[in-house]
Design a protein that fits this description.
The complex is a heterodimer of chains A (461) and B (391). By secondary structure, chain A is of the alpha+beta class. Chain A folds into two domains: 2-318, Peroxisomal Thiolase, Chain A, domain 1, CATH 3.40.47; 337-459, no CATH class. In chain A, 23% of the residues lie in helices and 30% in strands. Chain A is built from twelve helices and 21 strands. In chain A, the strands form five sheets. In chain A, strands 5-4-6-7-1-8-13-12-11 form a nine-stranded mixed β-sheet, with helices on both faces. A five-stranded antiparallel β-sheet of chain A has the order 19-18-17-20-21. In chain A, helix 2 packs across helix 3. The two termini of chain A are 36 Å apart. Chain B is globular, with a radius of gyration of 20 Å. With 391 residues, chain B is an alpha/beta fold. The model of chain B has no long low-confidence stretch (mean pLDDT 97). Chain B folds into two domains: 10-121 and 213-235, Thiolase/Chalcone synthase (Peroxisomal Thiolase, Chain A, domain 1), CATH 3.40.47; 139-209 and 237-390, 3-Layer(aba) Sandwich (Peroxisomal Thiolase, Chain A, domain 1), CATH 3.40.47. Chain B is built from 14 helices and eleven strands. Classes of the chains: A alpha+beta (461), B alpha/beta (391). Chain A binds chain B through residues 327-330, 333-336, 338-340, 342-343, 346-347, 360-364, 366, 370-371, 391-399, 406, 408, 410, 412, 416-418, 420-422, 444, 452-454, and chain B through 118-122, 124, 126-127, 129-133, 135-138, 140-141, 144-145, 148-149, 197-201, 245-247, 249-252, 254, 256, 380.
Chain lengths: 461, 391
């Protein structure tokens, strides 16, 4: 068998309150204008990979792929500076695919390989509908490995696949549709229960021994009867994060699992049920290894680190739902393929160079040292995780931005190296010289159907 | 490393300059023809007498054909060149070397820029195909970094610095008000400048030079031939150009209170001209006031003020039109305007007028040596041109 060896999570900084939408209580997480399902998975995976974990398989699940055709997992491979020899795949088409990918990742681990499984989603709904209000944006990542390395090993699993018109969307449609909810609730519900029972049976454990039960479905009503049918106590049910994040599509079940792992103790048993077009169920048992996990940023910490004064019309503009007057500046040019390929490690993995003669750091990487003039004596060095701080900064009111003003900073890296970049997830009033920053993988803009990914800096969260 | 200079070997014998502004009714061709006509007339020559041309333009056309077609030049060499905001000065510098070495006898350096056809706000520069990682900071943002750095290093209160910057803008507008060719010809009160809409950092609209169209031209020959064209030539004492290595962009040691490229080019120029004390010996200067803090820092980089003291000199009025060492007597980029390819030659045009006693209401008493300076790029990565010119 196999298990989860490492994990990481990511909830974006911004929140849209339901009051701002005019629909109820609580708030939903909102990926910023410069984030997408890929960038959020990169953030989650950085925690999972911290300290250097060797993986050979990369699986990415989403229902909001940045590209419909061009492998999104490849962008993740490049941003995480993973070897080009990995086996990679995108999974999509259903919010169940986050757990679906995890099951495949576990199969791969059982076969002696090691998979990074990422799931991310930016959930968009038509204004006025439930999907917009109840949805959320987030990313999660798991690394699978052998039983003996696992912090949570698989002790049971089951699946079902059901052809049902519950949630659907054509590729060319912007908003998904959903059939009358009672239909799927009544049709999917029994199948979910059956799958859950089969998983528990395979695990050979009773429902009463479960510390945490994670229930996630494209149709919330379909889960209503489950707790009673399984004999579960309310304390066993994981918080669905409806009031703080919203259902984050393919990432959501995984996000709830990461949150359970954040506070799990050895011996805890976790049941994960994810339903959409069928059900995937997984029973995990936490091991002693959970105590020696390197620190990760916990889900609750991401949730608590937030800003929730986003205006609804700003949100609608960012999602392309509301057209607006463009600035009198030229549209950005698409980045060109050959330079992007030549500079891939810089652009996507934030790898600069360090002169081996005088130790001067260079961002972007150079062949000729700016300090001592040595030619071709550079070594590649990744600055993405290097501690850095603001040397100076300015607020640019002229530069075009979807969240003006642009905060542009000159950033100094510990050990040498300097780079000017945009700050993101920042309150312009709280920027000060000397502030510590972290580098974050973002999607700067899209031009002529090409996404332009790169890095920005943001205050630590 | 040799930079021998060509002091007093080249003369300017004629100049022309169009008004700068929003010339909706004139294309680059029209502006070039207008400036060239004025320059030919100024030198008292027929167009055919010019042996070779240097055309400076950053974005208003490629190849010497832009000029040769407009002027119908009969099969002569036309070099089109560019070095960001130092483009016009570069045209002059290269033309000067061509006559100094004897390859040609009479040459024209001409610059043009047509910035108002784009429809966009602010300066727009399209880079070649690239990897999408280049900085999106606008020019006002990059230069705005100078202000807080200067204030911090020299212990100047933020409010005081704001006054200093406003004073620079006020001075340049006051000068421009006396200049019939300037884009903006009204004095602007200090209060208006201080309250202007924020553009970047501490800088408001009045801290930024405008976007405009224009052209300027110079006719050059060897010094010994100058008398053939005019009784009142002016002579190039120094020409210096430095392209930086972007050290400020990479190095944590760069503190945004200086332009090493300017320091290097000014030092080279003063050496070529035999100037030992720029503060005492330079009567007047046209410097690159793309933004107000730029002019402030340039005073120290050029040696007109000691380090950390320029702000006091500004407030004292040292650099005013009627001050001890007038800076940007024609209104500068700020009020004359900044059509990139033309600016360096427009600066020389003011030196031409001043040295010949033709500057009218702006006339400085008995100027001896003048300086023109251009800076292209941004703090941390730029080019710098400095010339010294006199009688």
């Amino acid at each position: 068998m196999a298990g989860i060896v490492r994990y990481g999570s990511y909830v974006p900084y911004l929140r849209l309150t339901r009051a701002a939408i005019g629909a109820g209580k609580g708030e939903r997480a909102v990926a910023s204008y410069d984030e997408d399902s890929v960038s959020m998975v990169v953030e989650a995976a950085r925690d999972a990979l911290r300290g250097g974990v060797a993986i050979d398989t990369l699986l990415f699940a989403t229902t909001s792929p940045p590209y419909a055709e061009k492998l999104n997992a490849a962008t993740i491979q490049a941003a995480l500076d993973l070897p080009e020899t990995v086996t990679s795949a995108d999974l999509g088409g259903s919010t169940r695919m986050g757990v679906g990918a995890l099951l495949l990742g576990l199969d791969v681990a059982a076969a002696g390989r090691c998979a990074l499984v990422g799931a991310g989603d930016v959930v968009v709904g038509a204004p006025g509908g439930g999907r917009e209000t109840l949805g959320g944006d987030a990313g999660v990542a798991f690394i699978t490995g052998t039983d003996s390395d696992a912090v949570a090993r698989v002790i049971g699993r089951a699946s079902s696949t059901m052809e049902i018109l519950d949630v659907w969307r054509l590729p060319e449609d912007r908003f998904a549709k959903q059939w009358e909810e009672r239909f799927a609730a009544d049709t999917l519900g029994p199948s979910i229960l059956d799958t859950a029972k089969r998983a528990l049976q395979q695990a050979g454990v009773g429902a009463e021994t479960l510390s945490t039960v994670i229930l996630d479905s494209s149709n919330p009503r379909s889960l209503a009867a489950l707790p009673k049918a399984l004999g579960l106590q309310p304390a066993q049910l994981a918080d669905p994060l409806a009031a703080t994040v919203g259902r984050s599509g393919a990432a959501h079940a995984g996000l709830m699992l990461a949150r359970a792992l954040d506070t799990a103790k050895p011996g805890d048993r976790i049941l994960v049920i994810c339903a959409a077009d069928g059900t995937d169920a997984l029973v995990l048992e936490v091991t002693e290894k959970i105590k020696s996990l390197p620190p990760v940023r916990k889900v609750d910490r991401w949730i608590a680190s937030k800003r929730n004064d986003l205006a609804y019309n700003t949100y609608l503009r960012w999602r392309g739902i509301l057209p607006f007057e463009p600035p009198r500046r030229p549209d950005p040019e698409r980045p060109a393929a050959p330079p992007m390929r030549r500079h891939e490690r810089w652009k996507l993995a934030f790898v600069g160079s360090r002169c081996q003669k005088c130790q001067a750091g260079h961002l972007p990487p150079q062949r000729v040292c700016v300090k001592c003039g040595a030619i071709d004596q550079m070594k590649a060095e990744r600055f993405a995780d290097t501690s850095c701080r603001i040397a100076t900064y300015t607020l640019d009111h002229l530069a075009y931005s979807l969240q003006p003003p642009v905060v542009a900073a000159v950033v100094d890296y510990e050990g040498g190296g300097r780079f000017s970049c945009e700050l993101t997830d920042v309150d312009a009033n709280e920027v000060a010289i000397g502030n510590h920053l972290e580098m974050s993988f973002r999607r700067l803009f899209t031009a002529q159907s090409v996404h332009n990914y790169f890095w920005k800096a943001r205050p630590g969260r | 490393m040799a930079s021998n200079g060509i002091k007093d070997r080249v003369a300017i014998v004629g100049m022309g300059c169009t008004p700068f502004g929003e010339h909706w009714d004139k294309g680059p061709d029209d502006l070039l023809i207008d400036a060239a006509k004025e320059a030919y007339k100024s030198a008292g020559i027929e167009p055919d007498q010019v042996d070779a041309y240097w055309l400076g333009t950053m974005a208003s056309g490629v190849s010497g054909l832009v000029l040769s077609e407009a002027l119908k030049i009969p099969y002569k060499p036309v070099t089109r060149l560019e070095n960001m905001c130092a483009t016009g000065s570069e045209a002059m510098r290269n033309a000067a070397y061509a006559v100094a070495c004897g390859a040609y006898d009479l040459v024209m350096a001409i610059g043009v820029e047509k910035l108002k056809d784009s429809g966009f706000s602010g300066l727009v520069v399209s880079p070649p195909p690239n990897d999408g990682t280049h900085s999106s900071m606008t020019p006002p943002a990059t230069f705005s970094l100078l202000a807080p750095a200067y204030a911090k290093k020299y212990g100047v209160e933020s409010d005081t610095l704001k006054q200093v910057l406003a004073r620079i803008a006020w001075k340049n507008h006051r000068n421009g008000a006396k200049n019939p060719k300037a884009q903006f010809r009204k004095e602007v009160p200090m209060e208006t400048i201080c309250k202007s809409t924020p553009v970047a950092g501490m800088l408001g609209i009045f801290d930024c030079s405008g976007v405009s169209d224009g052209s300027a031209a110079a006719i050059l020959c060897r010094a010994e031939d100058a008398h053939k064209y005019t009784d009142h030539p002016i002579f190039l004492k120094a020409l210096s150009f430095v392209a930086g290595r972007a050290e400020g962009n990479f190095s944590q040691d760069y503190d945004f209170t200086t332009f090493p490229e300017v320091v290097a080019s000014a030092s080279d120029a003063f050496k070529q001209a035999g100037v030992k004390d720029p503060r005492e010996e330079i009567s007047m200067a046209e410097v690159h006031d793309c933004f107000t803090p730029t002019e402030l820092v340039l005073m120290e980089d050029m040696g007109f003020s000691p380090r950390g003291q320029a702000w006091k000199d500004v407030l004292d009025g040292r650099f005013d039109g009627d001050g001890v060492q007038p800076i940007n007597p024609d209104g500068g980029l700020k009020s004359f305007g900044h059509p990139i390819g033309a600016s360096g030659l427009r600066m020389m045009y003011e030196m031409w007028l001043q040295l010949r006693g033709e500057a009218g209401a702006r006339q400085i008493k008995n100027p001896k040596l003048g300086v023109t300076h251009n800076l292209g790029g941004a703090p941390g990565r730029c080019v710098s041109f400095v010339s010294v010119v006199g009688l």
